[in-house]
Specification:
Aspartate Aminotransferase, domain 1, 12 strands, 381 residues, Aspartate Aminotransferase, domain 2, 5-stranded mixed β-sheet, alpha/beta
């Protein structure tokens, strides 16, 4: 039976849900190893938790159900998932990345991939005709975030998939900002979807995790072998926390988005706010493309104020909103990308993108939007 997304958030991982006591909540199998009954056969299907664990398997089945993936693997962080994905590539390969990326991925590209003989090309993938000029026979993947972090650039996933496949490359999409509730890149042609599950999937600012979702059996098998070999997988207790968080994913995303629209509209009216970046605003450059490929705009807002002094004053004065890295939780967080998430992006790239001392990023949580607006208002005074 095809259940709605909301129902799958509760029951999507059911195929591993059997337990001897018929517990409603998934059991936490806090075990490193699983016993064999006889040589060469293990009736449970589990041997060692680095390879697989019943709690983690149920979480992975849940995420596959929500993303429409052939398989998903839960990692100890979003960056562990990205690193495992990039193990697919070999010296001499090239990867074309969106130029507006989370700073941790830029750091991985610079410090690890380039050292290992993989060349990274960057392009503004909003204009895929320009991005296409950088593709070579050695380009094995296009890697995008949409909406991107922190400038909220929107890339057309269908067109990016067509471009990648036309050149024999994979399309890899970081879907963290919208989550599978609002966007399903595999249904639009992507081969791989990555999540920092720390964010909206877990949703409570209490767990670090990541997901690597594959569209086909061959990639899934390769990624499984990589996760078993490198071992940066998610433990059973953290897997249980994420499963619990996903149960409320649908209601959280709807409420957070509703508040974000209201806050973004309010920010546009403030004299010291120079620009608001939110793909849910009709005047956003990515509004039409996002509407064509996603079911919502999410709850991430970036905005520029009139000076670095104003930005620092706001960060120091907010009381309800927490000045901290990360995003996607029930608590609202405000981040200073130039000094936190994007310090490893080259200064000239930051300037070109607009990641300056005036830029702030707001993750809208579940607090009353009136209270959040009041907190921002007193901070901007």
């Amino acid at each position: 039976m095809n259940h709605s997304f909301d129902t799958r958030c509760i029951h999507g991982g059911e195929k591993n849900a059997e337990n001897s006591f018929r517990a409603i909540s998934t059991p936490i199998y806090q075990s490193a190893s699983f016993a064999h009954i006889k040589t060469g056969h293990n009736e449970s299907g589990f041997d060692y938790s680095r390879e697989s664990n019943p709690t983690r398997s149920q979480l992975e089945n849940m995420v596959s159900s929500l993303e429409g993936a052939f398989d998903s693997i839960a990692f100890s962080s979003g960056m562990a998932a990205v690193a495992a994905c990039f193990e697919h590539f070999r010296p001499g390969d090239r990867i074309l990345c969106s130029d507006d990326l989370y700073g941790g991925v830029v750091r991985l590209n610079t410090r690890v991939l380039e050292k290992n003989g993989i060349t990274i090309d960057y392009s503004d993938t909003r204009d895929l005709s320009e991005a296409a000029k950088l593709l070579t026979p050695q380009t094995k993947a296009i890697y995008i975030e949409t909406p991107s972090n922190p400038m909220m650039h929107v890339t057309d996933i269908r067109k990016a998939a067509h471009l990648a496949h036309e050149h024999g490359a994979l399309l890899i999409v970081d879907n963290t900002f919208l989550s599978p509730y609002f966007q399903n890149p595999i249904a639009l042609g992507a081969d791989v979807v990555i999540h920092s599950g720390t964010k909206f999937l877990a949703g409570h600012n209490d767990t670090v995790c990541g997901f690597l979702c594959s569209a086909d059996k061959e990639l899934a098998g390769e990624f499984r072998l990589t996760s078993k070999t490198t071992g940066a997988v998610l433990g059973p207790f953290d897997s249980w926390l994420v499963l619990r968080g996903i149960k409320t994913l649908a209601v959280r995303m709807e409420r957070q988005q509703k508040s974000a629209v209201r806050i973004a509209e309010w920010l546009k009216t403030q004299p010291c706010v120079r620009k608001v970046y939110y793909v849910g605003l009709p005047d956003s450059p990515g509004y039409d493309v996002n509407r064509a490929q996603a079911r919502g705009a999410g709850s991430m807002i970036s905005f520029s104020v009139d000076s670095g002094t104003t930005a620092e004053r706001l960060l120091g004065k907010v009381k309800l909103i927490t000045f901290a890295e990360s995003l996607g939780g029930v608590e609202s967080l405000i981040t200073y990308p130039i000094a936190q998430t994007h310090t490893d992006v080259p200064p000239e790239t930051r300037r070109r993108l607009g990641i300056t001392e005036c830029l702030l990023r707001l993750s809208v949580g579940l607090e009353s939007p009136e209270d959040l607006i009041a907190d921002l208002a007193q901070g901007l005074e």
